[in-house]
Amino acid sequence: MTLSRVIPKLGVALTIVLIVGATLLAAPASAQDTVAYRVNAGAGALDANPNWTRDSKVKPSRFLVSTAVKITRVKRLVDTSNPSVPVGTPSKLFASGRLATGSSLKWAFPTEPGSYVLRLYFAETSRGAFKAGERVMDIAAEGKTVLENLDVFESVGADKALMKSFTVESDSVLNVSLDAVAGYPHINGLEVIRPTTTTPDPTPDPTPDPTPDPTPDPTPDPTPDPTPDPTPDPTGCTGVRVGLGDSLKDVADARPAGTTFCIEGSHEVSAPVMVQSGDQFIGNGAGSTSVFTRSARFVFDGSKSNGTRIAGLDISGATGDEACRPRCGRGIWPGTNMTVSSVRLHDNANQGVGGAGSGLVIENSEIFRNGSEDFIGCCGGGVKSGSSYTIRDSHVHDNIGNGIWCDVACPRFVVQNNVVEDNSRNGIRYEHGIHVSSEVANEGSALIVGNIVTGSNVSRNTPGGGIEINSASNVVIDRNTMGGTIEAAGIIVRGSRHELTGISIRDNALRGDTVSGCSLSGVTCLRNS
Hints:
Layout: E1 19-20, E2 23-24, E3 33-40, E4 69-73, E5 96-100, E6 104-110, E7 114-123, E8 136-141, E9 144-150, H1 152-156, E10 161-170, E11 173-182, E12 186-187, E13 189-195, E14 240-242, H2 248-253, E15 260-263, E16 266-268, E17 273-274, E18 280-283, E19 290-292, E20 298-301, E21 306-311, E22 314-316, E23 330-333, E24 336-341, E25 344-346, E26 351-354, E27 360-363, E28 366-368, E29 381-385, E30 389-392, E31 395-397, E32 402-406, E33 412-416, E34 419-421, E35 428-431, H3 438-443, E36 445-449, E37 452-454, E38 467-470, E39 475-478, E40 481-483, E41 491-494, E42 503-506, E43 515-516, E44 523-526
Parallel strand pairs: 14-15, 15-18, 16-19, 17-20, 18-21, 19-22, 20-23, 21-24, 22-25, 23-26, 24-27, 25-28, 26-29, 27-30, 28-31, 29-32, 30-33, 31-34, 32-35, 33-36, 34-37, 35-38, 36-39, 37-40, 38-41, 39-42, 41-43, 42-44
Antiparallel strand pairs: 1-2, 3-13, 4-5, 5-12, 6-11, 7-10, 7-13, 8-9, 8-11
């Protein structure tokens, strides 16, 4: 399969289906289970808890692998009274669908290896298939057939909803395929549910081994929601309270290094909040706690700090123009070993996060609408650094410039499990500058794995590209899902500043995009489709 959140061990994934006689039993989700994914096939998002994510004509679902597809719509009311359909399932789910125009309709959901409940939602709404035998499908999960000869009309009749549920043992991606027996496969919704039985490692190593293993085997990180929404720090906050009416900057300036600040409400700053070594700035969640500016060139300046954390905040408004670039206009200017967690960074003139020292980790954050024409080309976009950093489980979108960028003499660049979409230039970019020695450039490395990178190069820049490698080596680009890159290749390798060596592009789902650079010396491309 062509999509993964991690680089899995070689092995065979198993599929388990509960069967009694000829009846498939829906595997129930307990109160402790979590909805990992929901897709409203063929239409926009539906409000729920959590929402059903979009799969529209303009923006197909990130998890749809097949490209020979259409959408279906119906205005008639679909009967959802069948006992297989869970209580509370929105009736609008069955007003649209995704139809294959070929023999298969394939989906792929990044997962942490383990047991999942897969729920598939159907309704036969096409009058041309209101007859037994007109549309018949086999269903496979993880390459194993879990249901043969599904005929929705024969099972429940016309304009009536049906849900089929399977318990599946998944590897690092849950692959789903609807294969034609008669007619063309069609589905209205998909849902993936996971047990809440694992606890993520709260202290990831921010400075991984700079030499990439040609067949790396990292421990899977928790799988994020496809459109991550920063949430409060679940552990709470114990420290200096900064409430409404308090000056965050003044409170921070008055405290020694290593202070934890527990921030509530909204705070405007006219000068950067100075971050000292060991400081923590913790909000109640990006939806309820904000720090913004209308005049400061940075919101948080941690450029001289070490070992800090910013979490649970909405951060915006850093200013700047051509006169002060490239350093100004950053929402966060990190120092060394900063963690940015569950943060929303937006509408900063240059970058959401920029100019970091080594060891930066960004996780479970949303970074959007950063950058401006004054900073395009040199530096503008979502995140940019010339030092090692890791970004994972985050949503980076609609930035002016590159979404995620490591430049100059970037030693180690890890981009894992992110949704990166609709950025005006590259979605993800890794490069080394001309002034960097060949020895330094050849020691750098990048791991770009399990990301969803769509709608890149909105500005139609040349050469563009969804994922671009420029004059850099030792790169693994593995099991990313591409699509919709505008007037450019989805994955591109180029550049003559330094020799290209050790670049592996493999098992990526291109979804209509292309790969450029496979013929270059030092570049290997395998199983991209």
